[in-house]
Amino acid sequence: MKPLHDEQASSARAGAPLRFDAATMPKAIGSQARGQQFDHSEPVCQATMEPADCVLCGSTQASHFIDAEDDLTGKPGRFRFVQCDRCALVYQSPRIPAADIAAWYDDEYIAHRKKTDFGPFTGLYHWAMDRHDRRKLALARRYVDLHPESRVLDLGCGAGTFLAKVAQETGASATGVDFKDLSHLPWMREIEFRCGRPQDQAFPAGGFDLITLWHFLEHDYEPQRTLAQAREWLAPQGRMVIEVPRLDSVSFKLFGDRWPGLQAPQHTAVYSRETLCALVSRAGLRIVEWLPWGAFPAYFYLFAGTAFKLLRGRGLNLSRAVYPYFIGELLLSPLLVFEKRLNLAMQTVVVERVEQS
Fold first, then answer.
1. First-last CA distance in the chain
2. pLDDT digits (tens, 9 = 90+) for 236-287
3. How many CA atoms lie within 13 A of 109 on its CB side?
4. 325: alpha, beta or left, given left = phi > 0 and alpha = psi -120 to 50?
5. Is 176 exposed, middle or buried, given 0-12, 13-18 or 19+ CB atoms closer than 10 A?
6. Residues 69, 99: contact at Cβ < 8 Å?
7. pLDDT for 141 beyond 70
8. How many other CB atoms are found less than 10 A from the CB of residue 321?
9. Which of 192, 190, 234 is nearest to 212 (CA)?
10. In this structure, are residues 212 and 260 in contact, taking their beta carbons and an 8 Å threshold?
11. 19 or 276: whose pLDDT is higher?
């Protein structure tokens, strides 16, 4: 590995962002063996990068784990994930600073639903998106009885369709937070939307009966702070539902550096069952139930992972993928019946607040 120049080393110790140019790029990125000690200052893309400590235990000691690309859009760059030597969390380091990451959430980003015209398959697409929201609501209702007096908060709400579904189906008061302002979407009139980060919001203590984080935590630069803050907003008998990709899953073993759960550079960390449970416990939350599945269809990871393997970083054309996606789902339907037992891709943890003595 190339050593840091003096000025780079001092910046790294101070926690300041590092800028790398093509002259300092490693020639064979990804050639290191898993488990090799990793220098967090080594560049992985032509961008302003910053070294990151472990977001679970705070350790600065980590080993190279895997390198990944933005396989969904095909944007250039390879991004490095390391594994903490102390707690085994896998996280991205170096990473793009939070202030600069918005550019990677463009019109192709699925959760923001900016693309809605898929030609003759548009109706099928909307049905699938609505099915996803129905699955979220059904999962949440396993733990919380939602009614017109209920208060629901969704962190990382994206386009807000889940909250709109909550309001329509249950009459509950629905509030969403996201750093992308999508309040112009027509169904957002059904909810209270706040643009920004969770830690910048001023909600009343104990103000929500249900708080959801659907594939938000893996994007979060400060997940412990977010969970601790959400804990304060949770009502004494409330529940928090957290869904993330599962690193120790069948799909990661199948696809490796093309696993959709890596989704570099947007995903700052990827969680195994052990590290996810450790994270919520550190935030003062008690686990009610852990599930080896989620509302998000595991089949998407099977389809996308296969496509990413074939495309090798060239990006996935969603318009062309709609038809083969649904054909593949139909063909695999006998297997997907057992999704909740097969540890394919997702995990969900349902938690409650631990009252301070």
1. 50
2. 999 999 999 999 999 999 999 999 999 999 999 999 999 999 999 999 999 9
3. 18
4. alpha
5. buried
6. no
7. yes
8. 16
9. 234
10. no
11. 276
Judge contact between 344 and 301, C-beta under 8 A: yes
Q: How far apart are CA 256 and CA 250, in angstroms?
A: 10
Residue pair 87/57 in contact (Cβ under 8 Å)? The answer is yes
d(CA 251, CA 298): 9
Strand pairing category for 151-155 and 173-178: parallel
Nearest to 79 by CA among 58, 102, 59, 50: 50
Using CA atoms, how far apart are residues 258 and 78, in angstroms rounded to an integer? 12
pLDDT (0 to 100) of residue 5: 33
What's the confidence (pLDDT) of residue 114? 56
Residue 239 in 3-state DSSP? strand
Q: Residue 73: is its pLDDT beyond 70? A: yes
pLDDT digits (tens, 9 = 90+) for 153-189: 999 999 999 999 999 999 999 999 999 888 888 888 8
